[in-house]
């Protein structure tokens, strides 16, 4: 075992890197199970997981985890179960956080018959594979169940409250993060539908802030430790004003969710950083909750509601795939360069069953990875990753760990241990055990 | 004196008119100075004034009222004093409410030397002519004084507070309505300037709601009876979200100011009504505070900040003047059809010195009225106006007054009196006096 300098350095990161703030340094004291320091010993440190949430939707795996044979149960797109099976390894090799579909209409198409068990099975299936989960969304005007429409406002409110309580309670300890309410900026004035849905009606009647408050109140009571996210696609001053009202109202949001479905074209670094700076002003973590880049033609700029553009064929092209690969690298570099960004969720692993029929996946419909998949994997698991690295403990049993915030294994001749590298803890102790 | 039916009806208004809600009916009991009813007597009722605020800017008259000979003192455009003199009668024949320029940079170019006296003289000059006034604006990032820029945030806040207190106190009883704060949606992120102004800096540091609160707190304390307006050009959901935050914060705004500088083209009825409906949801009066329609080419649609388009020549054209006349009628009809609209201020009487150099006036630069002037006058003083109308009191001395909310004279052989027709008072008493 070759012995290197005990100070480990992630590749390509120096003191001037824009990603400096994501690289931490800690003294790790390694002890035997009897408490004595393991001095002057060769160790191998190896990253196991990123603390940063590299997310993707896990919609494709609901059927698979539940042993279903068709995609009939999919509410918001996704691959057929047999195709999904071939995506698992690709998915797990890049992503550590899965967004699970709690769209109300699909989750409870018949009042009183929620698919709680189906999603519990899925969340456990992901947990067993080391994947954290996020529930999306608890309250949203789109895909609100049709049975809600006939209820008067007071009953709609009670049904919304009960639904939030029920889901957050049932998944406590399993789903730690929730998009509590989605797209509130447009919610009370949403009119791209034939008849006004009940959630829009409720929000119009109660007001945006009262609607947010009731959703967050119920979620917080149901799981006080959960990370509760306010999520929106509106990146204008409207969302800023909404957030300022939410903070003024004393509603405790834990993170600001920013959608970035770039079907109409990549934002570029300047616009992205401007958006991040504007929303970072509130001192809350930013979750880039829904990130899309297409590998085909971009959607015409005049389309206002993305749902209004769903061509019969929207192919992935060679040229588009190269562009998508370049853009995904630029975009993730930009996002991670901003200290406020704590999570980035890409919206879809595969083109099969993708939202809007867009070539937005990182894997083609035939299951082969696009260049964007490989490019993102290179970032997440190579450039931003500490591979097995050799070092030697000093006379006190300490070795310096210098790497990306996350989980590391420490392997010694006396056994192996796992350590969490986080900004909160510059001094770490591990006890190795065979 | 011919005696007509004692029930008077404004012309062109029937029970199905969209302006029904602006037409009131009251029993007016006419008494002699000794208290006895004036029964069975011919009376002439004549409208003197609209309760509805038909406003325009009074910027042109500041110099004139103060006996100045040049427009050098004008801060935000306006005609030369000698030209303004020829506009007075045209202005007074249509409008009853004047917006006065309190732009801080012009009002107090040197710290501690405000133009209080100059504006007091103007407000009194207007008051003597039966014109109500509105102060505009107390807090705004644009035209904030440059001497503010070097102060730290805490001193900027104190200077803003002191300025609001000072102006509202000095004009108490003379200026009953204020645009307390202007364009807060964009205020903290306004960047169309070389160096960031101090008010934007303050708003970014304190937040939008705290900035609104400090301005309204000071204004309310200085004149508890004043009508305090929040004003913006942003008609998107951003302004809705801001207002919801303001209401949540318990900041008492008395009216919502909606700008509508339509240099880029008339909105049309549908868009106008949609905007009014969205902002009427808050149950507050709507003031269409800044209304512009050009009588020349419209500004290109891609311009985001209207100030970025100021061509050297922007002529009024014959075709444009006809269009402006049609549009102003359509627009005022639409605005008055909505029960929440309490005030409409047109932005400029003359093209001379008009904002952006646009042909936005109702009078050409040479002082001749455009078709839009005549069209608006016809609405305000003919179609929506009760001309001298004959009636006869019944045996109790009562006559029914059916007309537009406003001030009426009641002339009898025994003398004349003035009466206010308002929704609050269906039964009126007047004492005529010679």
TrEMBL record, chains A, B:
It catalyses: Endohydrolysis of (1->4)-beta-D-xylosidic linkages in xylans. Keywords: Carbohydrate metabolism, Glycosidase, Hydrolase, Polysaccharide degradation, Signal, Xylan degradation. Its EC number is 3.2.1.8. Gene3D superfamilies: Glycosidases. Residues 69-379 form the GH10 domain. PROSITE patterns: GH10_2. This is Beta-xylanase. InterPro entries: GH, GH10, GH10_dom. SMART domains: Glyco_10. Signal peptide: none annotated. Belongs to the glycosyl hydrolase 10 (cellulase F) family.
């Amino acid at each position: 075992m070759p012995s290197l300098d005990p100070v480990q350095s992630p590749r390509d990161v120096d003191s001037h890197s824009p990603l400096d703030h994501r690289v931490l340094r800690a003294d790790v004291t390694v002890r035997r199970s009897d408490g004595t320091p393991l001095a002057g010993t060769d160790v191998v440190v190896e990253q196991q997981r990123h603390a940063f949430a590299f997310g993707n939707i896990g919609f494709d795996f609901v059927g698979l985890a539940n042993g279903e044979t068709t995609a009939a149960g999919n509410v918001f797109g996704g691959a057929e179960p047999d195709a999904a099976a071939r995506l698992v390894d690709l998915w797990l090799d890049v992503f550590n956080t899965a967004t699970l579909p709690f769209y109300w209409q699909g989750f409870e198409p018949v009042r009183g018959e929620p698919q709680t068990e189906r999603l519990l099975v899925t969340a456990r299936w992901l947990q067993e594979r080391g994947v954290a989960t996020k529930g999306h969304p608890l309250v949203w005007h789109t895909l609100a169940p049709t049975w809600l429409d006939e209820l008067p406002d007071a009953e709609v409110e009670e049904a919304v409250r009960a639904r939030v309580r029920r889901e957050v309670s049932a998944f406590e300890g399993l789903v730690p993060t929730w998009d509590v309410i989605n797209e509130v900026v447009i919610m009370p004035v949403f009119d791209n539908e034939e008849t006004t849905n009940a959630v829009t009606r409720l929000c119009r009647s109660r007001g945006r802030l009262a609607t947010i408050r009731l959703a967050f109140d119920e979620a917080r009571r149901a799981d006080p430790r959960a990370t509760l996210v306010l999520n929106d696609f509106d990146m204008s001053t409207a969302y800023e004003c909404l957030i300022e009202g939410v903070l003024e109202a004393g509603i405790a949001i834990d993170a600001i969710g920013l959608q970035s479905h770039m079907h109409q074209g990549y934002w570029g670094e300047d616009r992205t950083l401007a958006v991040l700076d504007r929303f970072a002003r509130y001192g809350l973590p930013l979750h880039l909750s829904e990130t899309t880049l297409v590998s085909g033609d971009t959607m015409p700029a005049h389309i206002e509601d993305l749902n209004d553009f769903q061509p019969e064929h929207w192919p992935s092209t060679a040229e588009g795939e190269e562009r998508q690969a370049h853009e995904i690298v630029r975009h993730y570099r930009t996002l991670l360069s901003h200290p406020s960004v704590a999570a980035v969720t890409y919206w879809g692993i595969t083109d099969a069953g993708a939202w809007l029929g867009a070539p937005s996946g990182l894997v083609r419909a035939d299951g082969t990875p696009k260049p964007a998949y490989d490019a993102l994997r290179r970032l997440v698991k190579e450039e931003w990753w500490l591979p097995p690295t050799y070092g030697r403990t000093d006379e006190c049993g300490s070795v310096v760990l210098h790497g990306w915030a996350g989980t590391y294994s420490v392997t010694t001749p006396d056994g192996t241990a796992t350590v969490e590298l986080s900004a909160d803890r510059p001094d770490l102790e591990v006890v190795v055990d065979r």
